[in-house]
């Protein structure tokens, strides 16, 4: 466990500062302290020098190890010459959207300043990651793995692996992130990326050492900017065990499609002759295929990797769609709690609302933009959550994005959709474009009940999996296809719904879902953190005493 212990004095000071908050976020649960320094530094992932975003000198950043219900106290010092924020992909921030670290919830950490995130990984297990959410920082690093282990008394549906590896894969540009941002700011599209990284390194740069005969867990997250990636290990099978916090039916695959923003855990047994094997990662659904390699190294290896790396799947969408449909929840396995994951019968709950969301690309004022239901999101001058809390008018309007595609002309707005606390919602993502889309919702995990090619109609509901669909936080939508999800809106707050296709996200393909309860109660939502940064029109206000 990388519990980042600080000096006693610091620790005492921090404890005193946050003690009252801990009472609310769960003082009975253990907490872990992290002190992070975010800097620019030289990195050479594809052989050329680049400006990278380092955390405590590391690229990728350090992993966060935690156990269900842990409180994570992460003091982030921003040593960049510009504002910075981290967000936590898949961490649900229950009743606590203030800590979400996206533009609409949290003020940027000013250059030279620090901010302490106070998170709780409440009722969660599984594999996730963090990333920088502002500007185009994600193209420079600043990301790292998050793992939430089960509490000791909760059974895990497979034996303890001999080792547990974080594998962050993603497409990568040799260009500086500011250059990429400037291209987007000028209303142009980005060209195809230059390569693929595995844990921040290019071809043959990463190796994982295993002992023959033992079984290892690989937690694979696609932290890239746009491309779906296929992951495979030469000569080895992968047993899928977990998807974004859900223990899956343990199905064996020889390769796995990981769409941008998604996380998967597989078990791999080192059951082959003692030598080294390629790990291959390649782009999917692209005319030009980028491939990179890493190495699975047997500790008693007699031979280095040689020859061509293993090829990926050659058939396109149907193969991937069938694989996606084969990924199911193990209903009898425990999740974060001892009761089986199948004890919540999502398929029997009546839908209270259907929302259809269509992505589109187009131009507004001669510049490239991307939209959801014709609205291309633009930031306001104040985080929406703070405007809501301080009741500052004129920052956003609830209802500034329609529930259904209108087919109308694209326009800019600070789009916020209202939703009732405790509603049970069906969202249909409709993708009429030829790209592969990947959608993520903060604050929640949702059931991916169906996906198929063509146009969704109410009759498509007959194909839904209402029994053992996986619950996760990021789902793909295949080109000219739809994907349907169910969500129980049990988490009050302001939640970002965004594409994980990062240039599209940056140019407006996102909005906020404001899950609202008229009852102001800390049972439903925690008060604004005492240490919350205040910016824009919230500047100078005071965070109310607890
Ligand atoms: C962060 O790192 C930079 C560069 O090494 C150093 O100058 C600065 O003092 C560090 N800040 C903190 C808060 O540790
Ligand atoms: C900034 O860091 C110091 C310790 O280095 C800590 O005492 C203080 O609470 C932090 N400030 C915020 C706003 O988190
Ligand atoms: C499902 O979980 C149970 C309980 O841990 C386990 O015994 C079983 O092998 C799992 N089944 C599959 C198909 O993964
Ligand atoms: C990776 O290593 C193998 C074996 O040494 C070598 O044949 C191959 O060319 C290397 N690939 C790259 C891209 O460097
Ligand atoms: C769902 O709706 C049906 C018909 O309107 C109703 O009979 C049933 O009791 C409802 N089920 C639940 C769980 O509320």
TrEMBL record:
Signal peptide limits: 1-27
Keyword Membrane included in the entry's annotation: no
Family: Belongs to the multicopper oxidase family.
Gene Ontology terms, MF aspect: copper ion binding; oxidoreductase activity
Family matches, as SUPFAM superfamilies: Cupredoxins
This protein's UniProt keywords: Glycoprotein, Signal
InterPro entries recorded: Cu-oxidase-like_N, Cu-oxidase_2nd, Cu-oxidase_C, Cu-oxidase_fam, Cupredoxin, CuRO_1_AAO-like, CuRO_2_AO-like
CDD domains for this protein: CuRO_1_AAO_like_1 (cd13846), CuRO_2_AAO_like_1 (cd13872)
Protein name: L-ascorbate oxidase homolog
PANTHER family documented for this protein: L-ASCORBATE OXIDASE HOMOLOG, MULTI-COPPER OXIDASE
Boundaries of every Plastocyanin-like domain copy: 38-151, 164-301, 381-518
């Amino acid at each position: 466990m990388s519990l980042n212990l600080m000096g006693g004095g610091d620790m005492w000071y921090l404890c005193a500062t946050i003690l009252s908050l801990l009472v609310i976020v769960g003082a009975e649960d253990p907490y872990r302290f992290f002190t992070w320094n975010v800097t620019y530094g030289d990195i050479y992932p594809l052989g050329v020098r680049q400006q990278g975003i380092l955390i405590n000198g590391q690229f990728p950043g350090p992993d966060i190890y935690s156990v269900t219900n842990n409180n994570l106290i992460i003091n982030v010092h921003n040593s960049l010459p510009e504002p910075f924020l981290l967000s936590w992909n898949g961490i649900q921030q229950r009743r606590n959207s203030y800590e979400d670290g996206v533009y609409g919830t949290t003020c940027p950490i000013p250059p030279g300043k620090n901010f302490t995130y106070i998170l709780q990984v409440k009722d969660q297990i599984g594999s996730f990651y963090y990333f920088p959410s502002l500007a185009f920082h994600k193209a420079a690093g600043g990301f790292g793995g998050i793992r939430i282990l089960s509490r000791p008394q909760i059974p895990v549906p497979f034996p303890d692996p001999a080792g547990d590896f974080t594998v962050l894969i993603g497409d990568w540009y040799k260009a500086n992130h500011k250059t990429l941002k400037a291209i987007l700011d000028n209303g142009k599209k980005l060209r195809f990326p230059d390569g693929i990284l595995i844990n921040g390194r290019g071809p043959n740069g990463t190796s994982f050492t295993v002992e023959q005969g033992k079984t290892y867990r690989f937690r694979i997250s696609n932290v890239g900017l746009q491309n779906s990636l296929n992951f495979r290990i030469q000569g080895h099978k992968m047993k899928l065990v977990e998807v974004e916090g859900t223990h899956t039916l343990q199905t064996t695959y020889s390769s796995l499609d990981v769409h941008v923003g998604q996380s998967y855990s597989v078990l791999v047994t080192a059951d082959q002759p003692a030598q080294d094997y390629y790990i291959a990662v390649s782009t999917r659904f692209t005319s030009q295929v980028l491939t990179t390699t890493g190495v699975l190294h047997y500790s008693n290896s007699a031979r280095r990797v040689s020859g061509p790396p293993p090829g990926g799947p050659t058939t396109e969408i149907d193969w991937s769609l069938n694989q996606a449909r084969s990924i199911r929840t193990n209903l009898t396995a425990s999740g974060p709690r001892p009761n089986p994951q199948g004890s919540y019968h999502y398929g029997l709950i009546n839908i209270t609302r259907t929302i259809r969301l269509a992505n589109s690309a187009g131009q507004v004022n001669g510049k490239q933009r991307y939209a959801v239901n014709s609205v291309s999101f633009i930031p306001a001058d104040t985080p929406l959550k703070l405007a809501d809390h301080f009741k500052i008018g004129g920052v956003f309007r609830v209802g500034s994005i329609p529930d259904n595609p209108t087919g109308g002309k694209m326009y800019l707005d600070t789009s916020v959709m209202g939703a009732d606390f405790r509603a049970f919602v069906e969202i249909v993502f409709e993708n009429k474009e030829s790209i592969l889309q990947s959608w993520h919702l903060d604050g929640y995990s949702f059931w991916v009940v169906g996906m198929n090619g063509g146009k969704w109609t109410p009759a498509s509901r007959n194909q839904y999996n209402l029994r053992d669909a996986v619950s996760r936080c990021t789902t793909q939508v295949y080109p000219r296809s739809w994907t349907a999800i169910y969500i129980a809106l049990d988490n009050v707050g302001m939640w970002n719904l965004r594409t994980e296709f990062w240039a599209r996200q940056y140019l407006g393909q996102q909005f906020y879902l404001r899950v609202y309860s008229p009852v102001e109660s800390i049972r439903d939502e925690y008060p604004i953190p005492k240490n919350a940064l205040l910016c824009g029109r919230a500047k100078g206000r005071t965070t109310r005493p607890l």
